[in-house]
């Protein structure tokens, strides 16, 4: 008799579409310190290679080529950056109430300096830095945007520590 055991799956990567892949790679490597795994390169629609066939499966037939780059965070989570020549070059209106990806989050204990750097590189601070439990725990957060309007959040502490029951007790 066998028993099926469920286990938490790890996060592999996130894909982000931007209007300028070189500017995005510069932003995410210089501001976030992420590693470049694969420099920006062009993928053309063709059926002779595994990547060509895979991209047709994913994107359909209505494209000819796109640019792609691969980055990695310090903990090994991949960031796949896409740039399509005929795509809309502006981020959609911020609407967290609709179904879909709302944001991603990164962690940096020096939230103030990171926000200053994001703004210096053309991003935006969407709200004041907030503390989860003022005068009790040093956990802070803030929503920001990259230079392309992609919304993300910054935490000063790990997700587990921020939301674990032990994090909220004295």
Strands, helices and their partners?
Blueprint: E1 13-17, H1 21-30, E2 35-44, H2 50-59, E3 65-72, E4 78-83, E5 104-107, H3 111-120, E6 124-125, E7 130-131, E8 140-145, E9 151-155, H4 159-163
Walk me through what this model shows.
It is a single chain. By secondary structure, the chain is α+β, with helices and mostly antiparallel strands. It is built from four helices and nine strands. Strands 5, 6, 7, 8 and 9 form a five-stranded mixed sheet that branches. Strands 1-4-3-2 form a four-stranded mixed sheet, with helices on one face. The chain starts with 12 loop residues before the first strand and ends in a 7-residue tail after the last helix. The mean pLDDT is 92.
Gist?
Helix content is 21%, strand content 28%.
Which structural traits does this protein have?
alpha+beta; 5-stranded mixed beta sheet; 4-stranded mixed beta sheet; 4 helices
Report mean pLDDT, rounded to a whole number. Answer: 92
Radius of gyration: 19 Å
Q: Report on the biggest sheet.
A: 5 strands, mixed
Structural class of the helix and strand makeup? alpha+beta
């Amino acid at each position: 008799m066998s028993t099926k055991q469920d286990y938490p799956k790890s996060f592999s990567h996130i894909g982000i579409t931007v209007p300028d892949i070189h500017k995005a790679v510069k932003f995410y490597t210089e501001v976030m310190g992420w590693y470049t795994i694969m420099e920006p390169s062009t993928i053309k629609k063709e059926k002779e290679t595994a990547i060509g066939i895979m991209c047709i499966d994913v994107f359909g037939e209505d494209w000819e080529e796109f640019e792609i780059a691969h980055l990695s965070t310090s903990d090994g989570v991949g960031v796949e950056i896409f740039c399509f020549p005929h795509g809309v070059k502006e981020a959609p209106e911020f609407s967290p109430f609709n179904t879909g990806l709302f944001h991603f989050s990164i962690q940096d204990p020096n939230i103030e300096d990171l926000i200053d750097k994001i703004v210096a590189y053309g991003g935006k601070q969407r709200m004041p830095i907030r503390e989860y439990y003022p005068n009790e725990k040093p956990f802070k957060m803030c929503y920001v945007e990259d230079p392309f309007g992609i919304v993300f959040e910054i935490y000063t502490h790990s997700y587990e520590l921020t939301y674990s029951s032990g994090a909220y007790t004295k």
